[in-house]
Amino acid sequence: MKCCENGGNTSTKKWVFLTLMILVIALGSLFVYQQLKHRTADQSLGTPLFTLEDQGVKVEVFSKKGSIDVGKQDLTIRVSGGDLKSLYLYMPPMPGMGEMREDATIQKVSDGVYNATLNVSMAGSWQLFVQVDGKVLKKDISVPFAGQRTAVDDQSQIVVNTKAMQLIGIQTHEVSYMDLSESFSVVGYVSYDLSHVHQITLRSDAWVLDTFSRFEGELVKRGTPLMKVLSPEVRIAQEELNLAKSLGRQDIERLSKEKLSYLHAGQVVTSPVNGLILEKKVNPGGFLKAGEVAYTLVDLSNLWVVAEVPLEFSSYLKKGMKVLVKPVGEEKLYEGRVDYIFPVADKEARTVKARISLRGASLKINQLVEVIFETQPVRVLAVPESAVVDTGRRQVVFVQKGEGMYEPRQIKLGRRFQDYYEVLDGLSEGERVVVKGTFFLDSEAQIKGLYGGEEKSHEHHHH
Fold first, then answer.
1. Of 374, 390, 415, the domain-final residue
2. What are the tens digits of pLDDT across the range 108-149?
3. Which residues belong to any copy of the YtkA-like domain (predicted)?
4. Which residues pair with 303 in a beta bridge?
5. Confidence (pLDDT) at 386
6. What is the number of domains present in the chain?
């Protein structure tokens, strides 16, 4: 009896085991079938490029070509979690080029599947925006350059097709030797020219009758009356003349007339120059002795500018060198010459004074000015400042290697001469470097890793 029961239990276990095996095989077959079906569906959509996901929304982008290139693109978009509303490429503005946007034409194929036709006008770094209902998903993509490529290009060069060159506006400049000069600017102040100071004195004692309301700091023109005086000797000379007439002495009469004319000539004293009254030492009713200074005037047709030059630039100073003087807050420039270099330096300020002579400048005494010095030209191998990209660790230029082919190259820079740099190493005379469009080429060099993994954030010298 027990034997029969054991046999029945064994049969039941075998039946359960077989049933489970059949179920597992069926489920596995179904899974494989679904995977094959899904893969077949994906293959019919094209090569998967990338997937975007955000809070329940999933966007898969496929392409028959397997990439996004310059020109017409036929993409297939599979969306879950909403309906596709728009898709477009966007390129931010860059120096010399405005922003660009390429919108796709979208056609719904089936539930969640769309065909998108997109025209990519140029290679470069784009941003892809996909709108699903009210949500926008974004991805940065790089569209490769079209055109001839060589093994060298793939490793170290950037190739730009003709259309892209026109859109970017790439311009180049030939590296050459140039006669360049350095310039530096310092602060200075305006002073009057002590060699053009005039002191007003009388040849004889006199009473001051009037000063015509003149005052210190007043600008006067040549011939402006400064004071009216009366000499005590005038009466004596008049009496001598009358006596000579009564005696009939023509020789004495002639001498007396000359003396009287001389004394009367000084009765109204006028300014001998166009200038500034620095000092006024007389007042109406006062008495002025012969030789005493009544007024001190300075001729402003010639001025001095005293410049404070840092000691590190003092070796550039030369007597007679030309300089430019620019009043603070103004755009007008005056040309002058260094006429004296003071022999003593200011040890605290670490400066030395240089005096500049200016003629015909409309400046005010003690006015602050900017003094621009320019050194003697030197011959150097030079490159425009606009060609240099500073990565933060090194300086790079883009050398033209052929039509539409550019190589980023590290160079060593020397002195800066206004809009040019001296090239110490890395370039040869006759090579051509990009001076416009470097921002775009720099972005491509970063994407291709041509800077050897340097940080992406760096500065550009563009002017």
1. 374
2. 999 999 999 988 887 777 889 999 998 999 988 877 765 434
3. 79-128
4. 192, 358
5. 93
6. 4
